[in-house]
Amino acid sequence: MRASVAFTCIALAASALTACGKSGKPADAPAPGQPAAASSASAPAPAPPDFPASTPLSAAQLAKCSTSTPAGLQGAPLPAYLAFLPCVIDLRTPEREDWSAHQFPPEPWGAEGPETLKQGRRWHALGAVHGAPADNKATWAALRAGFIGAGWQEVRAWPTQPVMAVMHYAAGGVDAWADVSMFQPPGAEIEVIEVAPMPLTFALPAPAAVPEKVAVDKGDFPFLPPVPGSTYKGGHHDPSPLTVTLPGASTPENVAPGAVVKDYKAPDGVSETEWFTFYVDALTRAGWTIVNKFHSSDAAITAHYGLNGRNVWAYLHMNGDGYDFEVGDEASAPLAAGLAKDCHVALTGVLFDFDKSTLKPESDPVLDRVRALLVKDATLRLEVQGHTDNVGSDSYNQTLSDARAGAVVAWLTQHGVAAGRLTSRGYGKTMPVADNATDPGRAKNRRVEIANPACVAKRK
């Protein structure tokens, strides 16, 4: 997605521009998205207060910019409305992305102006102005000459140190915005968004009622396909529990006993913003609940699917041009087999509000499996057990574990299970199954189990 460019083009001062590069015959009509070039005899655009005067590029200069091919240019060419840039600055690190977003003006300006988020195709340019003006006000005057000559309008310029400006281009059906920042030694950074809809439009299929077969080391998740054009890098099984920190909580909870992970490289041009925005919207449309989402230096989404009798947790993460999907195992073994083998089984994915006994709606698919087990075996009776970690007093944990076990029994009776087939009991922190000195260990100890009292004597 990134290409380096080195230009040696023209000598430029705040009040004069000399074109260079490989000249070409000007076209009779401007390129799509580029306004007709201004006459070389046109009056200069008035300079804003606090800035030196600047003369817009002439028609001949714009034509040479548009038809020159600077040495070292790589990647997609600049759009027509930015074709003047090589005549003004030595582009050092140009970037192009299919779709991204930018705030105009960005934080932390806090000044009055177009506080608007723009989304669309993105270009980013960084470089020093030819001729190295003495300060960044003169740098901006030189760069402004190129923008104005190419048909851009100045929304506002801030005569701060460094100088900042917002420019707007509206011609030929193009709506583009530029955030321009000066820096020392004299140079400029230009962030451009051409407003456009997101190019990613494919739909995600919902998980089927019957769990799909997924190969660990090849292929994709049927309900979570990668971005078209992505490169599959590999897959593996992670036997450690998949954990989620629920909204309002400070500690992670286990939602699945293990997970399958698949890694990809994104296609060139796909930004983190595009990837993140697409999957948040597409998962929601497919019936998933977005539990957590984060986008800053990288992008991450935690989602849950609890429809059609399914209980699927997924963690999606992108950093740079690489991303991965981590999908939790719905169950390590059938509940009936676990009860027959050990006389008790933990219900991974039964979740509560933080420090409370209020069941989260994400618990419903797990509890419905318990209900189905009891419907299938009319002779089965269960004890629902609550367990905690060692944080807090004995009495506090005992009360909490009692209440959480009781909440599960209440859910089951409200969904058709006879109350006489169920009992509840809290064990507090007296029966840990992992090390309470670590977050993962405490997460394992905070659990609800079901036990068959008829075989309790066989328990290990």
Low-confidence region ranges: 1-45
User: Structural class of the helix and strand makeup?
Assistant: alpha+beta
Number of domains: 3
Radius of gyration: 31 Å
What is the general shape?
elongated
Number of helices: 7
Please report the total strand number as a whole number: 21
Please state the average pLDDT score. Answer: 83
List the helices and strands and how they pair.
Blueprint: E1 12-13, E2 16-17, H1 59-67, E3 89-91, E4 95-104, E5 116-129, H2 136-149, E6 153-158, E7 164-171, E8 174-183, E9 187-195, E10 231-238, E11 242-244, E12 253-256, E13 259-265, H3 272-285, E14 289-295, E15 299-305, E16 312-319, E17 322-328, H4 335-342, E18 344-346, H5 364-376, E19 382-387, H6 394-414, E20 422-426, H7 439-445, E21 447-451
Would you give an account of this structure?
With 460 residues, the chain is α+β, with helices and mostly antiparallel strands. The chain is elongated and about 95 Å long. A hairpin with an 8-residue loop joins strand 11 and strand 12 (253-256). It folds into 3 domains: 12-195, no CATH class; 231-328, no CATH class; 335-458, 60s Ribosomal Protein L30, Chain: A, CATH 3.30.1330. It has helices spanning 59-67, 136-149, 272-285, 335-342, 364-376, 394-414, 439-445; strands at residues 12-13, 16-17, 89-91, 95-104, 116-129, 153-158, 164-171, 174-183, 187-195, 231-238, 242-244, 253-256, 259-265, 289-295, 299-305, 312-319, 322-328, 344-346, 382-387, 422-426, 447-451. The longest helix has 21 residues, at 394-414. The protein has 7 helices and 21 strands. Strands 3, 4, 5, 6, 7, 8 and 9 form a 7-stranded antiparallel beta sheet that branches. The chain has a 6-stranded antiparallel beta sheet with strand order 10-13-17-16-15-14, with helices on one face. Residues 1-45 have low confidence and may be disordered.
